[in-house]
Amino acid sequence: MIPDAKIPAGPLAQKWQSHKARLRLVNPANRRKYHVIVVGSGLAGSAAAASLGELGYEVSCFCYQDSPRRAHSIAAQGGINAAKNYPNDGDSVRRLFLDTIKGGDYRAREANVHRLAELSVSIIDQCVAQGVPFAREYGGQLANRSFGGAQVSRTFYARGQTGQQLLLGAYSALSRQVGAGSVRMYPRHEMLDLVLVGGHAKGIVTRNLVTGEVRSWAADCVVLCTGGYGNVFYLSTNAQGCNVTATHRAHRRGALFANPCYTQIHPTCIPAHGDDQSKLTLMSESLRNDGRVWVPKDAADCGKDPASLPESARDYFLERKYPSYGNLAPRDIASRAAKEACDDGRGVGPSVDGRRLGVYLDFSASIARLGEPVIRERYGNLFDMYENITGENAYRRPMRIYPAVHYTMGGLWVDYNLQSNIPGLFVGGEANFSDHGANRLGASALMQGLADGYFVLPATVADYLAGVGLSGRPSGEGPEFRQALAETNDRVARLLAVGGKETPRSYHKRLGKIVWEQCGMARSKEGLTKAIADIRALREDFWRNVSVPGTGAGVTPALEHAGRVADFLEFGELMCRDALVREESCGGHFRVEHQDAGEARRDDAAFAHVAAWEWKGEGAEPVRHAEPLAYEEVQFSTRSYK
Amino acid sequence: MVKENSPAADHPATLRLRLRVWRQRPGQPGAFEEHELPAVPTSASFLEMMDLLNERLIREGKEPVAFDHDCREGICGMCSMTINGMPHGPLPGVTTCQLHMRNFRDGETITVEPWRARAFPVLRDLMVDRSGFDKVVQAGGFISVRTGSAPEANSIPVPKPVADEAMDAAECIGCGACVASCKNGSAMLFVGAKVTHLNLLPQGKPEAGRRAVAMVRAMDEAGFGNCTNYGECQAHCPKGITLDVIARLNRDYLAERVRAFFASTGKPRRGGD
Ligand SMILES: Cc1cc2nc3c(=O)[nH]c(=O)nc-3n(C[C@H](O)[C@H](O)[C@H](O)COP(=O)(O)OP(=O)(O)OC[C@H]3O[C@@H](n4cnc5c(N)ncnc54)[C@H](O)[C@@H]3O)c2cc1C
Ligand code: SF4
Ligand code: FES
Question: Is B191 an interface residue toward A (CB < 8 Å)?
Fold first, then answer.
């Protein structure tokens, strides 16, 4: 029953332009009469809400933080890709397209990825015009650096705070519309359900996180830009509030969830230090431009001072295994190589639970070559952050890093218009599944979020609105709204009523351990089967023993966390199930049964498709649909970075 | 304290702490509540220490202490605790979430309060309402450019020193520590940072004067106080924003007021409007 992906006909390079020319428009005088709900104020949500507001639609934008400027896009460090070819090193839209398809291990849609590469160029123009202070050369031109999985320099950056500066750009555009009255902003509101009327998405249910009020909102369509679900792992580089609730609740209302098992483990994060840890901190991939990754050759050397080990005792394993990409091998590959070295007993740093989980990222060669001031200028804030967290000075001693969950390629299924299988429900940014296949290349999520928000959604949302016409908006008083509201109130009441002894966080931690161990960097049939059973047991236990103090009126942090964990406990099972059925290795999905001496082995004959899961009710088996990936221009080939 | 250049010990050291935490419900007066925490790992962050307290409260069926936080890596600007009287605590250049417990002493009593400022009313416990900042930005903290109408990016060269200075100011995370540390509750450091970022760049010049005036007006309307040059804001800003940005804001504000004054007198001016 997989719905049509609506890929436009015609040559790949012309699909978007010709499609855009065919999309229907809304007469400017009528735009004000359409109400669009945008949930999320990250790059995708802010850009979409600002652009739609500017076009003249009535927009309401929601986020759970106290200000839209705090969406987790703010934390992106390294940069944003664009095929500008300013360094004249051979880049082009086509090359960015090919790198992204290959980086995604041939599991992304050709047409979407090509559009992304085309739009990358306009994104940089837009951001510069907004005043995003990108790094510059002395001549005043924009500077670039290189990122993993590419042999050209196409990454634009603003020190180590690229996401912050891009989001502040989008936030300023959004604020301008709020000031002008075309967008209404609702911070500290969490979306808890989607409302369908006649099969179309026509509203949402939210809880006001200050007053506790649960209410519904009606609109002509709904755009979800609610970010990724990496927090299902408990420890990740995501912010504390990142959740799957918005997309999972839409899934329960009928939206297909695509490729939930595709998650990205980032190779360069600060290793975990202990049991009370609440999050992991990323050290930008850009560090791999100047840092060399190594572990001791001999496990007996792992406890020694790294400075005491001569070159001959060190194993620069990425340079050894992948000579042409070296330390800039893509993330999935670099992460697995680090895990392998640690599993081999050659990890470094303090041992946690009897194991040393860390590898060195060593800047001494770059510092010797370029001098400390240059390294400080490039990465000073990251080195400071590292010192704050670990108490160690990385100018003097190699950093210790270890892979951590960072990004989720899976998300709600969308067609070429970024519309889900539910008409009127659009999904942008990390919340959809569309552009990164089984592995995302560095600096391409910011690109995708802004492409979706500034350029794709404003055009495709208009096409939908023009199609349904002005009679499309329900009153908000109908039975569908009343029922969704009652169901949400009921669920809140149930959480408050369990009255157990265990904290929401303790369940979140236990769930995280299960999925990290069985659905993390290495997955097996046996492990995934066990994980599914364990998650079910944990879910039952949660609904018997969780403690959620408070009445739900007013600020109730335990309730917020409990609601999110309850959804992760349902979603985690789906993720494992997807990983179990996908009997191949591709990108970030590594099934130990399918490998050639540690390298992923894809099965294109059986799995060159998108898996899109349909919710069938609590306790019922979800149904898996397959959307075949038909490539017109790219040849499937084995990904090699050797 | 972990020695520089030595990896943290295999078994992290712990601290015994006494916490005095501000608890407050909307519309009611607040008060301090005291708690003992017998074993806080020195490797934990300040918020992870608060998690330890909250975990215990929840297990006991009591409501946890409400506080704002999200990224926990010093960039979203959401965390906001006054620790021992200092916004974001004793370490310069660090947000609450990036402050680690190795900076405290065994047996210490730590006092934790919300931001204290007239324009930031307490919502609950340690959470305050900072929406005044958003209002100030809505009044003028942007460059007016329509989506899709931007010129080719490299057609606007920006000298590196200018781009760097703009970036220094743009690093502001909107946390509000500057306001909380100021006796007058002034937001001049925050507003100055935004105005400096945008007004320095060629793209921001056309609206520079209007922006400064509109943002200052919105700041007054949102209930922030006046700047009388105490300089406490700079000392507590976790992102190193300096008083220079206030000087620039004052300059651009005055220049615009002068321009507007002459425009209103109808005196002929050179150049177009
Ligand atoms: C530490 C880190 C570093 C990164 N570095 C890079 C990089 O250098 N380059 C790159 O390209 N990518 C990077 N990424 C990835 C990239 O930052 C994200 O994928 C991207 O910013 C996501 O943007 P978004 O708009 O989809 O979602 P987000 O920015 O996560 O925004 C989600 C929004 O949805 C709202 N929301 C969520 N749930 C709800 C709900 N239930 N109800 C109401 N509102 C809700 C939130 O309030 C928020 O406003 C990084 C990611 C991390 C974590
Ligand atoms: S100027 Fe500094 S203290 Fe004030 S809001 Fe910005 S970052 Fe926070
Ligand atoms: S929680 Fe984001 S800055 Fe502290």
Answer: no
Interface mutation target, options A128, A236, A266, A270, chain B, most CBs of B under 10 Å: A128
pLDDT digit string (tens) for A18-31? 999 999 999 999 99
Contacts of B163 in chain A (CB under 8 A): 133-136
Looking at domain A479-618, its CATH architecture is Up-down Bundle (1.20)
Q: Does A563 touch chain B (CB under 8 A)?
A: no
Contact A109, A448 (CB under 8 A): no
A178 and B134 in contact by Cβ < 8 A?
yes
Residue nearest to atom 4 of ligand 2 (CA): B178
Residue B83 or residue A472, greater confidence = B83
What SS3 class is residue B77?
Answer: coil
In A, which residues are within 8 Å of B125 by CB distance? 555
Q: What is the mean pLDDT of residues A418-447?
A: 96
B30 touches chain A (CB under 8 A): no
Is the CB of A169 within 6 Å of ligand 1? no
B221 CB within 8 Å of a chain A CB:
no
ipTM of the complex: 0.96
Cut 0.90: pTM above it? yes
Ordered domains of chain B (ranges, CATH): 12-123 (3.10.20.30), 130-265 (1.10.1060.10)
Ligand nearest to the CA of B50: 3
Among B100, B16, B96, which residue's Cα sits nearest to residue A390?
B100
By DSSP bridging, strand A221-224 and strand A425-427 are parallel
- Identified catalytic residue from A109, A115, A331, A378: A331
Q: Residue A374 CB: number of other CB atoms within 10 A?
A: 13
**Measured distance CA(A228)–CA(A568) in Å, rounded:** 12
| Contact between B145 and A130 using a beta-carbon 8 Å cutoff | yes
Averaged pLDDT, A33-47: 98
CATH code, A267-405: 3.90.700.10
Instruction: Please report the atom of ligand 1 found closest to the CA of residue A40.
Output: 34
Q: Rounded distance, CA A542 to CA A566, Å?
A: 8
Which residue out of B67, B78, B130, B172 has the highest number of ligand 3 atoms within 8 Å of its CB and is therefore the one to mutate?
B78
CB contact under 8 A, A125 and B142: no
**CA–CA separation, B72 and A335 (whole Å):** 23
In chain A, DSSP finds a helix count (H) and a strand count (E) of 18, 21
Q: Are A259 and A610 in contact (CB under 8 A)?
A: yes
pLDDT tens for each residue of B46-83 = 999 999 999 999 999 999 999 999 999 999 999 999 99
A228 phi-psi bin (left φ>0, alpha ψ -120 to 50, beta other): beta
Residues of chain B with pLDDT under 50: 1-11, 271-273
Structure tokens at A203: 């509203």
Domain spans of chain A?
A: 267-405, 479-618
Q: Which residues have a Cβ under 8 Å from the Cβ of A40 and sit 6 or more positions away?
A: A61, A62, A63, A71, A224, A225, A226, A227, A246, A429, A431
Largest CA distance in chain A: 75
Distance CA A14, CA A638 (A): 27
d(CA A437, CA A527): 24
Which residue is it, tokens 């409400």? Answer: B66
